[in-house]
Write a structure and sequence with these properties.
The chain has about 325 residues and is α/β, with parallel strands linked by helices. It is built from 14 helices and 11 strands. The chain has helices at about 15-25, 40-55, 80-85, 105-115, 130-135, 140-145, 165-170, 175-180, 195, 205-210, 215-235, 250-255, 290-295, 305-320, and strands spanning about 5-10, 30-35, 60-65, 120-125, 145-150, 190, 200, 240-245, 260-270, 280-285, 300-305. The structure holds alpha-D-ribofuranose and calcium ion.
Amino acid sequence: MKEKIIIDTDPGIDDAMAIFFASQSPNLDLIGLTTVFGNVPVEMSTDNAIRLCDILKKDIPVCTGAGKPYGGDVEPSFAHFVHGDNGLGNIELPPPSRQEDPRSAAEFIIEMAKKYPGEVTLVAVGPLTNVAHALDLEPELPNLLKRVVVMGGAARVKGNVSPVAEANIWNDPYGAEKVFATEYAKPLTLIGLDVTYAVSFSVEFNDKLEQLNPVIGSFMNKAAKFYTKFYSEVFQNAKEPVCYFHDALAIAHIINPDIFQYQDGYIRVSKDELCYGQTSFEGTDNPMPNPAWSSQPIVSAALKVNDDKVRDLIQEAYSL
Ligand code: RIB
Ligand code: CA
């Protein structure tokens, strides 16, 4: 049976890659997209999610979620400098072909989890705000979901919005803390910068996607040009221009978990000014555990990945 997944997303170029990858994968059934602020304002996330479904020619429900963080008194800021004014590399696209689904993101997640108890995997690749709201609305949700996979955080490596914080967690550390402090039927999987920065995508790789799939591949290749330009500025000493499709790694984990190596541990999220959004990870193997961490639910953090295998999986999906 195909695995039912909901992607909670803020598209975003790498979000687009994750959505296309999941939609192309024969073993996954993408039953909905829920949107959140993050790379772009939430209204734009919704429009972009519908536009991506239009490119795929799929009528997947798209439900709008949170426009601001779960906690704290912080106005959201967006990453247009990474993803373009329209969030999709400034590629001109027709307006969305349809309206969003009337259900809120949190309502949709809960409704699907109740309709298919134990079958739905929730893949969160934006700030964790919608997931936190859904947990508030339905306390049984953690046991109704099959599992939760999060692209976010940096367990053993530095951050990407500050020396210590990864963007999705930095956008809403309060929501993240709630999601990490919840016990699920299976331990939550964290796909953080430890693995997403270990898989680079070259200009040649993106050209190849276009050859393999003239519709979605050509869109991704164009969008990736803008994204690659951003990464060339960040990594000025790189040998060749590349980009990083962070969110797609969460889908790769679901398709083939064996290409990653994991460690069980506990996560806390900082909210003080300097360390805002930092995910500090402590393994379960510490013989002298600190209760501020060891009292938390166990999460499984991906720390290593076979980068060639991820690229192969994506190319295979684009060739179908
Ligand atoms: O840090 C990478 C994450 O932040 C990805 O989800 C990307 O889309 C941005 O939101
Ligand atoms: Ca994202």
